[in-house]
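Reviewers of the previous submission asked for a worked example of the structure-prediction workflow described in the proposal, so we include one complete record here. The input consisted solely of the amino acid sequence. No template or homolog information was supplied to the procedure at any stage.
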Amino acid sequence: MMKKLGMVMGIATLLTIFIGMDTALAGRVANRQIRQQRRIHQGIRSGELTRREIRRLERDQFKIQRFKRNAWSDGRLTPRERVRLEHGQNRASRHIYRLKHNDIHR
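From that input alone, the workflow returned the following structure tokens.
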């Protein structure tokens, strides 16, 4: 009886850890999206971005958000989905930097 209880508690602990990892990852992904949006809005306020550049960056953010929503639709993020999501965020971050620093102003 005690052995079964210990095993059930161990499984429950592992499930809690995995759920916590998914939640932490969700927070990390969401926070990065927020930071990227802030960078875009700062570029708009400073005049570093043209309207065309803004549309491109917003489209990148929309694609990332759509992929994230689809990836989480089953309630978890697989390692492959996480890698694709991070790759998309890395790419969007590079786009933001390049467009903000390309010396084209409105």
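The chain has one domain: 2-100. We consider this example representative of the routine output the project will generate in years two and three.
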